[in-house]
Design brief:
The structure holds 2 protein chains of 2 kinds.
Chain A: H1 2-37, H2 43-47, E1 50-51, E2 56-57, H3 60-91, H4 96-110, H5 113-127, H6 134-158, H7 162-170, H8 175-203, H9 207-210, H10 232-241, H11 250-282
Antiparallel strand pairs in A: 1-2
Chain B: E1 4-15, E2 18-29, E3 33-37, H1 44-50, E4 61-69, E5 72-73, H2 81-87, E6 88-91, H3 102-112, H4 118-131, H5 135-138, H6 151-163, E7 169-173, H7 181-194, E8 199-203, H8 207-213, E9 216-221, E10 224-230, H9 231-236, H10 241-247
Parallel strand pairs in B: 3-8, 3-9, 6-7, 7-8
Antiparallel strand pairs in B: 1-2, 1-4, 4-5, 9-10
Helix pairs in contact in B: 3-4, 3-6, 4-6, 6-7
Classes of the chains: A mainly alpha, B alpha/beta.
Chain lengths: 284, 252
């Protein structure tokens, strides 16, 4: 009888300490970054391009570059990912082929990002002749985001009650009408969550863009899809490993990381607010 | 009795190897209320869903036999299922309004079929809500979310949504089983009004309900249609022993 309560207490203690460990790690990283990088932050830091071999000035070019990369990646991956999920969940029959397809998509999520980089290099840069460019790097990041978006969208579509579909069909709707007017709108908030999460994953990637379009340094922001771009994560890598004066640029380096985090946080927050407003409109 | 809307003969339905409906033959008269009663799993809902081919979506479901709607077999090859469902509307067990506004719920069907003019839509929405006895309660809040309505109101909204495409038949699958007694009473009253315009076919668990609102009652048991007749006869002098046992509460 007694051991039952002992086990309960033990379980509580273990669960608490695991959660605590996660919080400590997360908090530790944040505090460390703020302490190291906050000093570098200023209005000039985000509105000026790097100067003097990147030892001075701001990070405008990599900041804009990262935003451009994310936009290209999403413009490709969001529609393709959502429509793939629609196919898998609404159209495909439940046979072995579909199962295999699903497995393939899921496995894609586990592929190391450097492999995506090499894939992007051979497909976009070389085979499709896009060169080392914003377009190639953005599409490569899009490939990385695809499995996340497909997975989240499929789960979102699955969560739409069958009742809605029944009601729509019973009024003489076609399958596509039902999907476009009932299923997708109902699933959209959750699909959006998947999209936002994938942005978080994509914005911080370095390996896939090194081979496909990220530049060590560009004097100006990219004005064309076929220009090379600077990107925040790659900028950090360079400052930390290949800068001309690593000690001196440490502040810039942590400032850059902090900005990257803030960008991702900003995108996530926007998404969360948008989703909440969508939800509010549909119920109560 | 009036003209027959549906004439069903020798209908068999299989889910894979299991037979769910056995040789069902029944005629359903126009502009009247027919109730299907029977214990859970007897096939009454399955049969109802044969009438607008909602069983088409169930994998490995096979239908044999003839279902004539105004003399035309709805299972004949080349049947336009979309326009069939437009003629044979359906209200489900659980109120299932879309997570949009009251207006958009009712306007959904007409929009599907190509109505875009705002004035026309407003007219249809009003008529349908009046037809479902909901207009007076929602006239000032057509743009509020449908999910903010009570369960009974939601079900009447679903009825309004179904009649907005002007069907000829209204199939109702236990429409009050998720509702409280007051809401149930309102829906029953509504069903009695609806039969002047539509042929209503209602599945119900509740025998009193069948007795109160239907003109004709059919009793289903284990996939068979045991007996059909005028409601009063079925409840006072059923000809089959199994019907009598069921309505007197000996099982079910």
């Amino acid at each position: 009888m007694k051991s039952r309560f002992l086990k309960d207490r033990l379980a509580t203690a273990v669960l608490w300490s695991c959660m605590g460990a996660v919080l400590v790690i997360l908090g530790g990283i944040l505090v460390f970054l703020v302490v190291q990088g906050a000093g570098a932050l200023s209005w000039e830091f985000i509105t000026q391009p790097p100067r003097d071999s990147m030892t001075k000035g701001g990070i405008l070019t990599p900041l804009i570059g990262t935003i451009q990369l994310v936009l290209v990646a999403m413009a490709f991956a969001f529609p393709v990912g959502v429509l793939t999920a629609v196919y898998l969940n609404e159209y495909a029959s439940t046979d072995r082929f579909t199962g295999l397809l699903r497995l393939a998509v899921r496995s894609l999520a586990g592929v190391p990002s450097v492999v995506f980089g090499l894939f992007g290099l051979s497909l976009f840069v070389i085979f499709l002749k896009f060169g080392s460019s914003l377009l190639s790097a953005g599409l490569t990041l899009g490939c990385l985001a695809l499995p996340v978006i497909v997975g989240a969208s499929e789960a979102a579509l699955k969560a739409v009650p069958q009742d809605y579909r029944d009601a729509s069909y019973a009024m003489g709707a076609t399958r596509w009408q039902t999907i476009r007017k009932v299923v997708l709108p109902a699933a959209f908030p959750a699909i959006l969550t998947g999209g936002i999460l994938s942005i978080g994953r994509v914005a911080g990637e370095t390996a896939p863009i090194i081979f496909t379009g990220a530049a060590f340094f560009t004097p100006d922001i990219a004005r064309s899809l076929f220009s090379q771009v600077m990107a925040l994560p790659y900028h950090v890598l360079i400052l930390a490993t290949a800068g001309t004066n690593i000690e001196e640029t440490r502040g810039i380096q942590y400032g850059t990381i902090l900005v990257l985090l803030l960008v991702v946080l900003g995108i996530t927050l926007t998404g969360v607010i948008w989703r909440a407003r969508l939800r509010m409109r549909s119920s109560r | 009795m009036s003209r027959m809307k549906f004439q069903i003969s020798n209908l068999n339905l299989y889910y894979g190897p299991n037979q769910a409906l056995k040789d069902v033959s029944i005629d359903l008269p126009e502009s009247s209320v027919t109730a299907f009663i029977g214990p859970s799993g007897c096939g009454k809902s399955t049969f109802l869903r044969c009438l607008n081919r909602m069983n088409d979506f169930i994998p490995r479901c096979r239908v044999e036999g003839q279902v004539l709607l105004d003399g035309t077999d709805i299972y004949a090859p080349g049947t336009d299922v979309i326009s069939l469902r437009r003629r044979v509307g359906m209200v489900f067990q659980k109120p299932n309004p879309f997570p949009t506004s009251i207006f958009d719920n009712v306007a959904y069907g007409p929009r599907l079929h190509g109505v875009t003019d705002r004035g026309t839509l407003e007219g249809i929405v009003r008529q349908s809500l009046e037809g479902a006895a909901l207009w007076d309660e929602v006239r000032d809040k057509l743009n509020t979310p449908a999910l903010s309505l009570s369960g009974g109101q939601q079900q009447r909204l679903c009825i309004a949504r179904a009649i907005a495409v002007q069907p000829e038949v209204l199939l109702m699958d236990e429409p009050t089983s998720a509702l409280d007694p007051m809401s149930t009473a309102r829906i029953e009253e509504l069903v009695r009004e609806l039969k002047t315009k539509y042929t209503v076919i209602i599945v119900t668990h509740n025998m009193q309900q069948a007795a109160r609102i239907s003109d004709l009652t059919a009793f289903f048991l284990l996939g068979e249609m045991v007996e059909v007749g005028p409601t009063q006869e079925i409840f006072t002098s059923p000809s089959d022993r199994r019907t009598e046992d069921y309505i007197t509460g000996r099982f079910g």
